[in-house]
Amino acid sequence: MLITDPEILQFIADTEAAYPADSNVATAEENRRNYDAMCAVFREPRPDGVQASDEIIAGVPVRRYQVDGYDKRPFLLYSHGGGYVIGGLESHDDVCAELADGTGCEVVSVDYRLAPEHLYPAQLDDVSAVWLAEADQGGRQGIVIGDSAGGNLSAGLCMRMRRVGGPMPMAQVLIYPGLGGDMQAPSYTENAEAPLLRTSDLIFYKGILTNGDPGPLETDPELSPLKAKSFAGLPRAFVVTADVDPLRDDGPAYVDALKAEGIVAEWRNEPQLVHGYLRARHRSTRARNSFAAIIDWINTVRE
């Protein structure tokens, strides 16, 4: 778990200055206040040429990001991270704008309902409702993408579409996702006290999401995709993990499960990087290269 990259060490220090480690287990109100302050520290201006607009789709607030020619490409449905408790349209605004700029795709960012006010499956219900509304527009093709809890929601949406026979995404891009993996896997112990996200934080967030009910976490593949009995029929995947992150080993486990069904899947692990490193993409060479790799992968499948 040793981090030596000075850019990452500075990123961790800057993050914790606004978002102390105990924020993860604070009240939702305090957590959100600290998280919003931290996101503001790292927020970048939108690239020139990216137009953003807010609207309501299927009762869910969203933000659209469009660039010239977006209608000739699949759309990206973005689900933000934040443990299902924090985050929203503002926290990931610059990430979504840069995804639109880098891929030429329209990005639709979903402001799904948060716990503890709204327990699972409210979050996936909102993401699915927006997906269905967007995919229903002339049979549009789309790619689901998300970070952390948003990566979980993106994988969960694929599981749900398989169950209900809905339109399946053409691809899934999961960035340091939590997928309901074995918490005895090495990453959960090696990185138990990792900067920015600890194993104990994960347990805390899961308890909030389900109000302490372990049932869905153990049996529902739409919440814990790695609990699925089969991975057949799911779309191709690009899964990116941070090496210094308790969630790291969920990524290769999911990729291996997809490959066992003959599905094209790729795992990219980022040495020295920590959970939440997307915010470091303008301050760290490693994070910048990882974000570029995500954009490059989308560009290979968007046509």
What topology emerges from the helices and strands here?
Elements: H1 6-18, H2 28-42, E1 51-57, E2 60-66, E3 75-79, H3 93-103, E4 107-110, H4 122-135, E5 142-147, H5 149-164, E6 171-175, H6 186-190, H7 199-210, H8 215-219, E7 236-244, H9 250-260, E8 265-274, H10 285-301
Parallel strand pairs: 3-4, 3-5, 5-6, 6-7, 7-8
Antiparallel strand pairs: 1-2, 2-4
Helix pairs in contact: 1-2, 4-5
How would you summarize this macromolecular structure in one to three sentences?
The chain has 303 residues and is an alpha/beta fold.
Note the main attributes of this structure.
8 strands; eight-stranded mixed β-sheet; alpha/beta; 303 residues
Taken as a percent bin, the fraction of beta residues is 15-25%
Full CATH superfamily name = Alpha/Beta hydrolase fold, catalytic domain
Please indicate the count of domains. Answer: 1
Q: What is the percent of helical residues?
A: 25-40%
Q: Using the 3D structure, state the CATH architecture.
A: 3-Layer(aba) Sandwich
Order of helices and strands: HHEEEHEHEHEHHHEHEH
Number of strands: 8
The name CATH uses for the topology is Rossmann fold
Q: For the terminal residues, how far apart are their CA atoms?
A: 39 Å
| CATH class descriptor name | Alpha Beta
Shape: globular
Structural class: alpha/beta
The residue-averaged pLDDT reads 97
Radius of gyration: 18 Å
Note poorly predicted spans.
none
Task: Tell me what the structure shows.
It is a single chain. The chain has 303 residues and is α/β, with parallel strands linked by helices. It has one domain (6-301): Rossmann fold (3-Layer(aba) Sandwich). The protein has helices at 6-18, 28-42, 93-103, 122-135, 149-164, 186-190, 199-210, 215-219, 250-260, 285-301; strands at 51-57, 60-66, 75-79, 107-110, 142-147, 171-175, 236-244, 265-274. The chain has an 8-stranded mixed sheet, with helices on both faces. Helix 9 links the parallel strand 7 (236-244) and strand 8. The radius of gyration is 18 Å and the shape is globular.
